[in-house]
Amino acid sequence: MTADLPGISYMALYIISMHLVNSNTRVGSNHWKLNVDEGKVVQASDEVSDSQNQDDLMNILTDKVYENGEWKIEKRKKCSKCEQNKNDEKMKQDQKEKLNDKPKEKQKPSITCGKPVNTTQYDHLRGIANRNDHSHIPEPEVALIFKKKGSRNSEVDMNTLEEKLKKNLKEKPNSVSVYNQIGNFWRIKGNTQESIECFRKALSILPNNAEVLLNLARVLFNLQYLDDAIFLTRRSLVMQPTNQNSWLQHFTLGEILKAYGHNQEAALHFRHAIDLNPGFQPAIANLREMEGTPSPSVTQYTLFIILLLVLGVLFGVITSIEANFDDSSEVKTQRHFNRAMAMRSIKLGINPKLIRMRKLNC
């Protein structure tokens, strides 16, 4: 038994030592060594792979350098390439922010009517007061105004027209007609703000010019300012000279009133337009459409009245039938009662007149 004790002791020491070795060994642990050349403790794993985990306590030791008999903390060297990339990204971001923050410069119109006027007598209209907020709506049909009579070519060269208007504006800088033409030019282009400003400038010189008032009314009508468009068109119709045809004012009023739902008044103006300009197809087409389609309000009122009349007649018939039925039932009951009483009185020898007197006294 004693002979086995040394073997058991050696076995126990071996087991304990292996346990200590396994407990101190970790997967992925860091090994440290003294670098004599650099004079500091470094990670042995740094020479193998940079991706292994680092111990915070040993990182402090690696930051110390032995110089002149003293240990000093060494500042970590920053990755120059990483810093450069960060700087490049920051510069790109700053450039993007500057581009986004920089206000976009509005493209200046090629031709204008000069500096906008301060006020006109029509600035109280909502469509004119909000002229800077309107969306752009091109009106290519306005180009027909500039088409030469007798010309077979239906297209209008806008570049040529623009050069012509510039020349006219230079020759007549305060002409109402030139301002009106430039306003129509911008109607074709779709620049609502410039067209309204030109019409305002023309009206500041001649407030009652029928043609300018009508053109401004057409612009506001396209922007769905119906009240303002009706006001300006009626004003244009009143101010139209007697020696000039006013069919266009009547046609414009017909279109606006039709959009408003006033079909009867709209049809009246369409008829006036046809009388003053026979064969004008748009007015004829609108009038034909309105005459073929009854007014929704009239149709509704008519159906409502017919329904009330039918209900009234049915109620009267039912009431009269019930009254006649009640009257006939009462008459039959009374006759049956009188006949029975008469037969009984005859059998008993009683005078029927006495029975009637008793009933009356009761």
Automatic annotation (TrEMBL):
Transmembrane parts of this sequence: 301-325
Family annotation (SMART domains): TPR
Region of interest (Disordered), ranges: 79-118
Gene Ontology terms: cellular component: actin cytoskeleton; cytoplasm
Entry keywords, A to Z: Membrane, TPR repeat, Transmembrane, Transmembrane helix
Keyword presence, Secreted: no
Amino acid composition bias (Basic and acidic residues), ranges on this chain: 80-108
Ranges for the TPR repeats: 176-209
GO annotation terms (biological process): actin filament polymerization
InterPro entries linked: TPR-like_helical_dom_sf, TPR_rpt, TTC17
Protein name stated in the entry: Tetratricopeptide repeat protein 17
Species whose genome carries this gene: Mytilus galloprovincialis
